[in-house]
Amino acid sequence: MGHQGDVWLDGFYGRDKHHERPRFRCVPRIDPHAGKRRALHADSTEQHTFIEPLARCHRTSSSGVPHFCEECEHVLDRHEGPQTSRGQAFTLREAAHALVEVAQGISMRRASRDARDAAERLSTNLWGMLRASDHGQLASDQLAMFGTIVRDALIPPTWPDSVALDEISFDVVITDLTGTGKVSSPGTVSVLGVYGYPTGRGSGRAVALAARGGGDALEWQAVLRSRPDEPSWVVCDQGKAVTSAIKTVWPNATTYVCEAHLRMLAEKRLAADGFDSTSGLWKALPAAIADRSRWDQLEADACAAGAARLVAWIRTNRRLIERQWAIRDPNRPLSIGGLETVLREVVHRLGDRRLVFRNRARIELVFDLMGLEMAGLATERRFREIIRRELLRNGGRPRRGRRSLDDHGSSSLYGAIRQVQTRLAPKRAQNVRAQTARRARQKAAGQSHLRRPPKLVTKRRPALP
Q1: Residue 4 predicted with pLDDT over 90
Q2: Scanning 8, 208, 280, 462, which has the fewest C-beta atoms within 10 Å of its C-beta?
Q3: Of 25, 26, 24, 23, which is closest to residue 5 (Cα–Cα)?
Q4: What is the CA radius of gyration of the chain?
Q5: Which residue pairs, CB below 8 angstroms and at least 24 apart, start in 353-357?
C-alpha cells in the first residue's frame, strides 16, 4: 500500500464494540549499513498509524463467539472481514443488498430492517426482546450515498441512437400544514420514460424514468435536454406534448408513431361499429398497418361490412399511414410496448407507497433502480463492485452525504405538481369554457331540431239554426 516499513496490527477502532475495525502501524526498518531508520516518506522517518481506505469490519458477538464467514464458515482473523466505507457501520455488501431490495420493489422499512438484522444492529423492544428496527431512514441513507453511484455507472450518460417515449401517471394526495391546519388536495404525478435501443431494434431497456408534476411539453423538454446527444429515431404515440417536445429539442430526429398505438385506435373504432376481436376485420388490423396493399383491402372490407367509424378513421389518417410506410425501418423499434411494460411495473411495485414519497429525486432514483432490476442488472455482486471501485477513488468516503437527497422540510415532488398546475390552470380554464359553450350549442341545436311547429287552431263557426 506504499508504506516503506513493517506493517503491524495496532488494535482496533470504532464506536461500537460489536463492530471493530483494525488499525495498523507502520514501523520503519533499520538499515544495517547506514545504522539508522530507512525513510518512509520524503519528509518523514517516523512511525505512524493508519487505517485502510475500506476498513475491514470485524464483528464480535456479545456471547464471545467469534464471527465467521456466512458462506464458508471460516472463522475470521483479526485483520479479516467484510469491507466498510469511512464512518459507516454497515458493510458494502449490506448496502448493495439494500439497494437490490429497493430495486425489487421492497419497501424502505423492510430493506432497512434486513440490513440491520444482517449487521446485528439490534435494539430491545417493549417486550424486552432484541429485534432489528424497521425504521426506513437507513435504506434512504444508503440510497442517497450509493444509489447515485450505481445509477451513474449502469445507465448511459448520453441518449442511445434509437429511443421510445411514453408516460404513465398516478394520483397522490398533497398534504400541507398551514396556519389553519392540515389541508389536502388531489395531485397527479407523471412518470416520463425513455427506453433506449443501443444497437437499433434489438434488446432495449429503460434509460430514464423521470417523476414530474405533469406531462406537458415543458416537462418533456426538460427530460429530453437532461442528457447530451440526439437520437436519430424516436418512436412515440400521438400525444401533442411529447411530439411538440421532440420537434423542439430533437429537430433532426425521425419520429415514428407507435404501430401498437395506431392499432389500438383502430380497434376502438371497430368496437364502436359492433365488431369484436373474433371478426376478420379485427384480425386484419396488425398486418394492414404495416402494408399498403393490406391497408387498401382493409378499407374495402370495412366499407363492405358497414364499419362506418373505422372507414372514417382510415380515410382521416391516410396521410399519416403513408408517411409511416415511407420511413418504416424493420431494423428500428416500431412500438413502445417495452416501455409500457416497464412503466406499468414500476407503478405496480410502488403500490400504496406512492402516498409516502415526497422527494422527487429519491423516487426517481428508486424508479431507475427498478428499471435496472427489470433489465437484469441489479445484482448484489455488481452493485458491490461498483460501490467499492468508486469509494477507492475517493479515499474510502462516499461523494454524497446521507441526507444529500433530503428536501429539509419541504416536498420537491409536491412542489413540482403545484408548479405544473399553476402553469396549466389558464389553459384548462379555457378548455372548460370552450367545452361548456360547445355543449350549450349542441343542446340548443338539438332542441331546435326536435321542436315541433305550432298547431293551427281554427275556430269553428256556430251552426246555423
Answers
A1: no
A2: 462
A3: 26
A4: 33
A5: 353/107, 354/170, 354/172, 354/189, 355/172, 355/173, 357/413
Q: What pLDDT score does 60 carry?
A: 57
User: Which residues make Cβ contacts (< 8 Å) with residue 154, sequence separation at least 6?
Assistant: 372, 377, 382, 386
Q: What are phi and psi of 393, to 5 degrees?
A: -70, -25
**Distance between CA atoms of 423 and 420, rounded to whole angstroms?**
5
CB 235 within 8 A of CB 261: no
Residue 355 DSSP code: G
pLDDT (tens digit per residue) in 300-324 = 999 999 999 999 999 999 999 999 9
Dump pLDDT digits (tens) for 403-427: 888 888 788 999 899 999 889 888 8
The percentage of residues in the chain with a pLDDT greater than 90, rounded to a whole number, is 46
Which grid coordinates are listed for 35?
545504522
Angle at 179 between CA 178 and CA 185, to 5 degrees: 30
Distance CA 139, CA 114 (A): 10
| Grid cell at residue 433 | 369554457
- Residue 14, pLDDT score: 65
CA geometry: angle 159, 160, 164, nearest 5 deg: 90
Map residue 114 onto helix, strand or coil: helix
Q: Are 103 and 95 in contact (CB under 8 A)?
A: no
The closest alpha carbon to 290, from 258, 253, 268, 312, belongs to 258
CA distance 7 to 25: 6
DSSP state, 461? P
Residues 427-435, mean pLDDT to the nearest whole number: 89
Q: Which residue, chain included where needed, has cell 420537434? A: 247
Closest by Cα among 137, 78, 88 to 113:
137
pLDDT of 447 reads 65
d(CA 164, CA 337): 9
Cell numbers that stand for 230 in this block: 440526439
| Residue pair 145/401 in contact by the 8 Å Cβ criterion | yes
Residue 122 confidence class, pLDDT cut points 50, 70, 90: confident
CA distances from 142 to 111, 138, 145, 393, 403 (A): 10, 6, 5, 18, 10
Q: Report how far apart the first and last C-alpha atoms of the chain are (Å, whole number).
A: 138
**pTM higher than 0.85 for the full model?**
no
Identify whether the C-beta of residue 284 lies closer than 8 Å to the C-beta of residue 310. no
